[in-house]
Structures are given as C-alpha cells and as structure tokens.
Amino acid sequence: PKQNVNVNTIQMKSYACQRRTPLKHHNSHLTEALEVLSENAAYGENEGRSVAFRRAASVLKALPYRVQTMDELKCLPCLGDHSQRVIKEILEDGTSREVESMRQSEQFQAMKALTGIFGVGVRTADRWFREGLRSPSDLIRTGQQLNREQQAGVLYYDELNKPVTKHEADLIGDIVKEAVSAVLPGAEIQLMGGFRRGKELGHDVDFLITHPEEGKEEELMPKIISWLEERDLLLYQKTTRNSYLEKKDAPGRPPNNMDRFERCFSIFKLQGHAETTGSDGVRPSNQSEASYWRAVRVDLVVSPYSQFAFATLGWTGSKLFERDLRRWAGQEKHMSLSSHALYDSVQRCYVRAQSEEEIFEYLGLEFIPPCERNA
Ligand code: CTP
Ligand code: MN
Ligand code: MN
Ligand code: MN
C-alpha cells in the first residue's frame, strides 16, 4: 500500500478531531510502546506528559501506511523528542529497551493491577504501592479499608478484566431495552463508547437513554434500576442525579470533562451463554448450569432530548478525540463544548443541534463518523 502513498504530501492535521482514525491501523508496534509511556506518566500523575505520548501514538494510528524510516515522520505533528527516540529504537532494533524495562518493572505492573480494580484511581493505587501492596489479593490479605465500589471491584476483579465481547454488549443491550421500554414506553436507547466506534471488545458497555418528549426522561434511572434489581440482574450500581443547569454550568467556566447527566455506573449479572464457557467448552465447575453468569461493567446515562446530540458526541469517544474536540472548540473557535451544550463566546449564545453532523458543522470541522474516531 505504501507505494501508492507519497509520504511527503500527507497533510496530518494536529487536532485528533480533524483526522480520520480507524480502529485497525498500520503501526501498532509503535503505538503500543508509546501508550506504555503514556500509561506510566499517568501513574506518576503527570497528565501533560501522558497526553503528549497518547497524541504521538494517535498521529501514527491515522497514518495510512506502516512507518519504516524516521524520514517519514518529518512532517508529522505531535511527535516530541522522547517519542521520536523510542520510535527510532523500535525501527532499528525491533523493540525499545526503555519501554520493555518499564513494562517489566514492579511499579508499572503493580500500578496496572491496582488501577485495574473498579473504583481505584492512580492516587489510591500509588499509596497502596508505597505501602508495599501489589495486587488485589494483597488488599484482601492485609484487610485494607475499601469502599463499596472497590469491594465490588476486588470481588469481580478477574471477570471485569476480561474483555466484554460485542455479543455480550448486544445481550446487555437487549436487557436494557426491555427495562427501559417497561418503565418508560417510547424511550430511545443507543449503544455508545467503544462499541459505537466499531470495537469488537471493550472494558464496559455504555448506553445513552432519552425520550422524544422533553421532561419524560426525568428521574428515569431509579425506575430502570428497580426493574433490573427486581430481576436480580445487578451486582452493583451507583446512581447520580442530573445536576446540569445551563446558567450555572457552561460559559466562562473552566471546561469540565465530567458531565452532569443522570447516570449509573453498574455491574451487570449477565446470565450464562455459549461465549462465557471456557476455551474447552466446559463451564467453570464452581457454578451450576442454573446459576451460571458473569460480571460486566455497564454505564447508563440519561439525557434530555434537547441535549441528546451533544451527549451522543460526548459519549462516543475516544477520550483523546473528545479532548481535542473541546480543545478545538476553545482554542480555534472561541466556543465551549460539553456533553450538554455548545456555547459560542463570540455570539454569546448557545447553539442548538439535533445531530452530531450539525455540531461538527458549527465547529467548522469535517464530519468524522464514529468508526473513524478511534484516536
Ligand atoms: N465518559 C464521560 N464521563 C465519564 C466517563 C466516560 O464523558 N465519567 C465518556 C468518555 O469521554 C468516552 C465515553 O464516555 O467518550 C466512553 O468511555 P469509556 O467507556 O471509558 O471508554 P470507551 O471508549 O468506551 O472504551 P472501552 O472499550 O475501554 O470501554
Ligand atoms: Mn489503512
Ligand atoms: Mn466503554
Ligand atoms: Mn464507560
């Protein structure tokens, strides 16, 4: 494919939201290394550095060919000295010693294991690491104080770290649909996050729920949760109420990544099916046929119909794509974008939109479909 591409004429845009980034790309040998560096910087609470490495990786994901020489990188944005050094090493030696030793290090592995627990962030993991703890079993053994979320995280650790398949996401989708239409007929539900971008595996399943009659969606979550709990379909849930107020939230405020929709972070109890049996086709011996199930992380979000386009855009991801959409809006267009609204600071007004396409258009961006937002 390379022969068809003149590397010197590629115009790589610097914001991820200006680029098409497919799920499958040509440079995973490089991007995986850069993402280790990004992860490690995040463990050290160095957000700027972490994002810088993630941006470098993202640019390589958007390249239509596999990088062979350093020459081909000359015109690309977002590749800092450190990233270039690591890329050079991999191109020359097939691997980066810095990255490999980082990957093998006790601290990196412990931080990965500990932040891999649902409800555990970098701060907590780092404190535990400095206290000599390395894994979920260390937490149990030493009787650490855990909140309700972390208790569930430790209890279902192995299952929650096993990727969710698209098939499982669809099964959960059927359940959520049934719950939602039982408690609020006419409500609409949409699969979000990585699965909307075409991923075949995910760490959770994300859903956005709305109703065409504005106001009908209010206080919907507790009803959905009750419906699910009555049927023993939830292992854990934490619901947060909607706290969005247009007057208070948007313009002038520092952009806040966390939205204020009514939402629920949950763990579903997904009843057994073919995919959940072991590779030998035998179900784990500790579970009888009748009680066979697995734990799956599910995020539910309820949006008023008038904010649905913004919520859809905001919950599709990827995280870097979202970050750059907001950065583009602020820096290039003097607008403030959130999962609720778009505010134009020049015109001093909110922009209404019925679709993602309209939002891209207002932002002066070419529309990028979800499957090409894998930045
Ligand atoms: N999101 C958000 N607020 C949160 C959590 C997530 O707005 N508190 C948004 C993210 O910006 C992202 C989307 O929800 O766009 C999905 O997030 P997440 O499920 O964490 O990531 P995915 O892209 O779905 O990847 P994965 O397959 O790992 O779940
Ligand atoms: Mn390609
Ligand atoms: Mn997700
Ligand atoms: Mn999620």
List keywords for this structure.
3-stranded antiparallel beta sheet, DNA polymerase, domain 1, binds cytidine-5'-triphosphate, 5-stranded mixed beta sheet, alpha+beta, 4 domains, binds manganese (II) ion, Beta Polymerase, domain 2, 375 residues
What's this entry about, in short?
By secondary structure, this protein is α+β, with helices and mostly antiparallel strands. The chain contains 16 helices and ten strands.
Notes on the protein architecture:
- The protein folds into 4 domains: 2-102, DNA polymerase beta, N-terminal domain-like (DNA polymerase, domain 1, Orthogonal Bundle); 106-155, 5' to 3' exonuclease, C-terminal subdomain (DNA polymerase, domain 1), CATH 1.10.150; 164-311, Beta Polymerase, domain 2, CATH 3.30.460.10; 316-372, 2-Layer Sandwich (Beta Polymerase, domain 3), CATH 3.30.210.
- Helix content is 41%, strand content 14%.
- It has helices spanning 28-43, 47-61, 81-93, 97-104, 106-115, 122-130, 136-141, 148-155, 157-160, 166-183, 193-196, 220-230, 246-249, 308-314, 319-333, 356-362; strands at residues 164-165, 188-192, 201-202, 205-210, 234-240, 262-271, 293-302, 335-337, 342-344, 349-351.
- The strands form 3 sheets. It has a 5-stranded mixed β-sheet with strand order 2-4-7-6-5, with helices on both faces. A 3-stranded antiparallel β-sheet has the order 8-9-10. Strands 1-3 form a two-stranded antiparallel sheet.
- The relative contact order is 0.11.
- The protein binds cytidine-5'-triphosphate and manganese (II) ion (3 copies).
- One manganese (II) ion binds at residues 193-194, 202, 204, 206.
- Cytidine-5'-triphosphate (CTP) is lined by residues 193-194, 199, 202-204, 206, 258-259, 314-319, 322, 339.
